[in-house]
Design brief:
It contains 7 helices and 8 strands, in the order αβαβαβαβββαββαα. The N terminus is likely disordered. Helices cover 34% and strands 19% of the residues. A hairpin with a 2-residue loop joins strand 4 and strand 5. It is of the alpha+beta class. It has one domain: Peptide methionine sulphoxide reductase MsrA (Peptide Methionine Sulfoxide Reductase, Chain A), CATH 3.30.1060. It has a 6-stranded mixed beta sheet. Strands 4-5 form a two-stranded antiparallel sheet. The protein is globular and about 40 Å long.
């Protein structure tokens, strides 16, 4: 997701993936329906938001996951300033979901299952404060759910290093530029997408015991 990949796009003249769908891989898109009356919202940062977007959109009960920025101190940031590390923001998705079909606890489990929560300011080769792991909460109950998930993972000894995911109260979310939305669906030929995003997504689907659509 670093600028190198945007340079590659400019020189390769990529076409939309709406027709190719990256071969046999089905990339989950937002559900085309109106929000339900009890729709809830959750926010998570787990590295590249392209990856997080399709992770959550693959789950039954999630209507949409929007890429953006949260966790920092600058209003209305853009991609370049977030990437500079000066805003304090992390790449974040805002998840719209139906709590009668999927629980906040399941979203938290998916959040941890789709990343390595033990690498400070890093996911894979993506490095910088904008790629740090953050679980945002809106209520005391949500905070307890996040803390319980971290304790469960810690007690399981799944990781040899401690979990460094930040637990932060939600304040503001700023939607990312339009070209970031549904990026994997629209650009399957991007080397980052084909070599990093897609393999990470397939690994998540294989390992996570969730209800996929």
């Amino acid at each position: 997701m670093k600028p190198l990949f945007f340079i590659l796009i400019a020189f390769t003249g990529l076409v939309s993936c709406a027709q190719t769908q990256n071969g046999a891989i089905k990339i989950p898109l937002p559900v085309k329906q109106k929000p339900v009356s009890n729709e809830a919202v959750a926010n998570f940062a787990e590295g590249c938001f392209w990856h997080a977007e399709i992770v959550f959109q693959s789950l039954v009960g999630v209507r949409d996951a929007v890429s953006g920025y949260a966790g920092g101190h600058v209003a209305n940031p853009d991609y370049e300033t977030v990437a500079s590390g000066s805003t304090g923001h992390a790449e974040t998705v805002q998840v719209y979901y139906d709590p009668s079909k999927i629980s906040y606890a399941t979203l938290v489990d998916a959040f941890f299952a789709s990343q390595n929560p033990t690498t400070p300011n890093q996911q894979g080769n993506d490095r910088g404060t904008e790629y740090r792991s953050i679980a945002f909460y809106r209520t005391a109950q949500e905070k307890q759910i996040i803390e319980a998930a971290i304790k469960k993972l810690t007690d399981s000894k799944k990781y040899k290093n401690p979990i460094v995911t930040e637990i932060k109260p939600f304040t503001n979310f700023y939607k990312a530029e339009d070209y970031h939305q549904e990026y994997i669906y629209n650009h399957p030929e991007n080397p980052y997408v084909s070599n990093v995003s897609i393999p990470e997504f397939l690994k998540f689907k294989k390992e996570f015991n969730g209800n996929f659509r």
